[in-house]
Amino acid sequence: MVEVESRTPPSATTVKDDHQFTVVVDEAETVIHEGVLRCNGGTITVVSPGVLAVDRLQHVVVRGGGSGDVSFTRCGFVTAEACGAASFHRCNAVRADGVREVAVRRCRSADVERASAVAIRRCKGVARVRGAGKLRVGRCLEADVGGCADVAVGRCRVARADWCGALGIDRCGTADVSRCGAVCVARCRAATVSGCDSVAVRRGKVNVIEQQPVCQEKSMYDHAEPVYAVPLEIVSM
User: Fold this and answer.
1) Which residues pair with 168 in a beta bridge?
2) Would you say residue 121 lies in a domain?
3) What top-level branch of life does the organism fall under (predicted)?
4) Lowest CB count within 10 Å: 178, 185, 193, 200, which one?
5) What percentage of the chain reaches a pLDDT higher than 70?
6) Distance between CA atoms of 116 and 228, rounded to whole angstroms?
């Protein structure tokens, strides 16, 4: 049962696209630009034009049409699509796609794709990010990152990164890094780095796997040599 409570009288003027949201609750789609929508013990509130707050809903999808800000608090499985900014606090599984700025705090898991700036802290499960500009992940169980430009991961039990630009990993249990640009690893228990432009290690042990040079001419009797992981340890003074 969905109940819409309007805070202001209906207006005859056209509502701007960045001031309205499309909300999907229990497979029912509703367009909202003002007032409060109540359903299943939770609320969806238009705080101000273009700003939406979602509280205590189990399953909800919010589409912003390319702009608009939305916040989720104490929700279950939630998704934000095509919004200007989305924040998630104390939710279960959260997902963001095509959101410019994403902030996640104290959620069970996070899945983010195509974002400009992402900050994720204290996820109990996996924080997965694909295609972000600036990314900061801290104190999560597992960080899985791919196709991001500027990445910093700290205090995670497991960290994986592939096809990233500048990457910094600090105080993680294990790290697996491949095909990145400039990589800096600090105080990790075990890390493997392969196919990266440069690797800097501070107070840790890292296995660096060097790629074989590409041969232009090769005899039919030649066989490829195996690539071994070379342990590298650099201790700062």
Assistant:
1) 152, 184
2) no
3) Eukaryota
4) 200
5) 81
6) 37
Number of domains in the chain: 1
CA distance 76 to 93: 6
Q: Determine the length of the chain.
A: 237
DSSP-assigned letter for residue 144: E
Please report the pLDDT score of residue 204 as a whole number. 82
Q: Does pTM surpass 0.90? A: no
Domain that holds residue 67: 2-6+17-107
Q: Which residues contact 217 (CB under 8 A, 6 or more apart)?
A: none
Give the integer Cα–Cα distance in Å for 177 and 168: 10
Q: Please, what is the Cα angle at 23 between 17 and 28, to 5 degrees?
A: 130
Region 34-55: what's the mean pLDDT?
95
User: Taking a C-beta distance cutoff of 8 angstroms, is the pair 154, 138 a contact?
Assistant: yes
Beta-bridge partner residues of 4: 37
How far apart CA 140 and CA 121 sit, in angstroms, is 6
Write the single-letter amino acid at 209. I
Cα–Cα distance for residue pair 181/110, rounded to 1 Å? 25
In the chain, the amino acid numbered 106 is R
In a domain, 140, yes or no: no
Q: Is 209 strand, coil or helix?
A: strand
Count of beta carbons in the 10 Å neighbourhood of residue 12: 5
Is 118 in contact with 128 (CB distance < 8 Å)?
Answer: no
Say if 85 falls within a structural domain: yes
| Torsion angle defined by CA atoms of residues 71, 73, 79 and 80, in that order, rounded to the nearest 10 degrees | 0
pLDDT band at 223 (very low <50, low <70, confident <90, very high): very low
